[in-house]
Write a structure and sequence with these properties.
This protein is an alpha/beta fold. The chain is built from five helices and ten strands, in the order βββαβββαββαβααβ. It has one domain: Rossmann fold, CATH 3.40.50. About 30% of the residues lie in helices and about 30% in strands. The protein is globular and about 50 Å long. It starts with a strand and ends with a strand.
């Protein structure tokens, strides 16, 4: 079972936000997907066995012995809620309410920093808004991973920035923060 250290709260569904497709693989907006892949690798390296399944709307990795599912919507970011809603409707029993951790990029937080919060979202993140609207709730934890590394003279803002690729050093920094999050925030 995955437990959040600070709140001693068990999490059994991680929803990682990103955009599906090779062209988005290492973009800032794909930070949630990058984290999901890193966390999956970590669990497998610890000896846990992963089962994977895909649908037209999502890809899910299941760690049965940990009672943990890691969901990556296969929709574009702005429609992530549809994939989450469909997954919950058809793959999670109605009597069972999962404890959800939503993992996503956050332009309001500096690169190399993160916030793990309950019911608190960035000001304007369409993927998070989509999930909240489809679920008619904001009753879940968020792992908000900072991606802001803008230099006012050389970096674009808004959508152009979040869809830009991480530079090599930035990507190394992102993976270091992922490892730090895994070590400090989760009890496995």
């Amino acid at each position: 079972m995955l437990e959040l250290v600070k709140d001693k709260k068990n999490i059994n569904l991680i929803v990682a936000l990103g955009n599906f497709g090779r062209e988005y693989l290492t973009t800032r907006h794909n930070t949630g997907f990058l984290f999901a892949d890193r966390f999956t690798d970590y669990l497998q390296n610890q000896g846990f066995i992963a089962d994977e399944d895909s649908d037209k709307l999502f890809h899910v990795t299941v760690f049965k012995e940990q009672d943990l599912q890691i969901l990556k919507p296969l929709t574009m970011m702005n429609n992530s809620g549809k994939a989450v809603s469909e997954y919950l409707k058809y793959h999670v029993p109605g009597i069972f309410k999962p404890s959800i951790l939503l993992v996503h990029d956050d332009l309001d937080i500096k690169l190399g920093e993160y916030k793990l919060q309950y019911k608190h979202s960035p000001k304007n993140h369409n993927g998070v808004i989509s999930v909240e609207q489809e679920m008619s709730s904001n009753d879940f934890y968020r792992l908000r991973i900072g991606i802001d590394n803008r230099d006012l003279q050389t970096r674009p803002y808004g959508i152009d920035y979040v869809l830009s690729r991480f530079e090599d050093e930035e990507l190394r920094q992102i993976y270091r923060i992922f490892d730090r999050i895994i070590q400090l925030e989760f009890k496995i």
